[in-house]
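Structure, all four chains, one model.
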Amino acid sequence: MVRETGPEDTTAEATPAERGRVRADARRNLDELLKAAMKVFASKGVDAPVRDIAKEAGVGVGTLYRHFPQRSDLVLAVCTREIDACADAAATFGDELQPFEAVSAWMNRYVQFIMTKRGLAAALYSGDPAYQGLPAYFEKRLHPALQGLLDAAEAAGAIRSGLKANELLRAVASFCAPAQDVGPEYPARMLELFMDGLRYRAPA
Amino acid sequence: MVRETGPEDTTAEATPAERGRVRADARRNLDELLKAAMKVFASKGVDAPVRDIAKEAGVGVGTLYRHFPQRSDLVLAVCTREIDACADAAATFGDELQPFEAVSAWMNRYVQFIMTKRGLAAALYSGDPAYQGLPAYFEKRLHPALQGLLDAAEAAGAIRSGLKANELLRAVASFCAPAQDVGPEYPARMLELFMDGLRYRAPA
DNA sequence: CATCTATACGGAACAATGTTCCGGATATCA
DNA sequence: TGATATCCGGAACATTGTTCCGTATAGATG
């Protein structure tokens, strides 16, 4: 992260990656690392040792740290990637499903995302400044994704009007929070209620 | 934690503490450790190293681990103690203040408790089984504490009726959650609103 | 195809921290 | 005062995040 002080590099190349020249093995390893991290985080939680991830990726720890200078950078990258995947699903559902079904399908996708990211929630609450930007990214990607489906459904008269995507996201996330007295199917039931509520006052 | 397998110990003495005979220095050290832990957790967060706590208590790590076999046991003990302190304050306020003022004073105390235990919230959300019982203890102590004050205030006609202590606790805790766009005085303002709401429909 | 160099890799080594172990100190009792 | 159950201190061990550097190699060049 040290920048050379020559007069010509204030605008252009600092690192090979930024010059667009990345060795093929580097790119491949970065991909392996991300896949491995997702797998290990899913099975052992976000607190899994870095070495486990490196081993799963078939790579040394040095390589891991070359791509992700801090452990939190890896966590961040995985989160970002999964937020993206969830957001991108909206476009697919919007294309392939009826307006209301698209909203419903996406909300289920969203619940699944939230439920598998419990350890991550802990990281957020920990106050580690490395994760400060995540909530903003979460909102930046997921809000428009849902709002688009909502607008389409409202335009089609399939759901009531005046719904705020952010409020739905927050509410659904909140009842996905862990509780000791309810079963794992609880969030799904609550979401069903929610979705029925959405269309209860639909004009059409 | 290993129990000897003799036939006579199924009902009685297993450890000297359970026989009621604890050496004075042991009891004193346990107290020092708790005080030290509270101080260190408050200044460096709940992730502070065990050695720091031992040093603050003027004690070796071995001693710390004798009293708290796991790090989480120490955290647990501190939490329990602070929950107790908060709950016990209700009796004091109930004795010394007018019914409504008692409720108000305790709610402020509760907010203060919640605000200083942010790192702890992270521990809870982490899913570590060591902390599984904490929410139940939280509810067991705090619910009756507030309910008592609420009942007294309602009986005196100082607040509206039908309030559920648990709902108030949950709601207040929820707006004490960290948010990046509000100042530190936000919870206090919200609580003020809440308290005004409490007496708005009071009969007297 | 051979050579060369910037780039990337692997894993040993280091540092911080939770946990265990045991020789020695000491409170308590007779 | 002496015996002994109990407790203490801190060195040692295990795990995990992070750094370092000698080695390997992708990709360019001839």
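The first helix of chain A runs from residue 24 to 44.
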